[in-house]
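hey so i finally got around to running the thing on that chain from the lab meeting. sorry it took forever, my laptop kept dying and i had to restart like 3 times. anyway pasting the input first so we r on the same page abt which one it is
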Amino acid sequence: MDIIAVNNFGDTRDGGLAGPMGLFLIVLMCIATVLLIRNMNKRIRRLPDSFEDEAERERVAEIARLNADLERSGGDVADGVEADRSAKTVGAAEDEVAAVPEAKAESPSESGRTAQ
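ok and heres what got predicted. didnt touch it at all, straight out
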């Protein structure tokens, strides 16, 4: 009857290897965790205090692209355009200033008083 009570469901060795092996794995995982924390702290310290806003970055990229296009097309053409634009602006501004007194003389409030 002793044959029926034999344990055939696992390791039946004498001497425990599970305790020291478990301790080794726990120590190994603790060392790996400490090394990972140190590495991430170094990386976080190297980050800038703040990052550029995406709109600001796009604006700077657009300015750089426009400057590159201007350099490629030649700067003399753009200078001539700016000179023409400023000459037209001065003449148009003088016309507006000259037209202001005429419009002021015929204001609706004064014309309404004279009709009464």
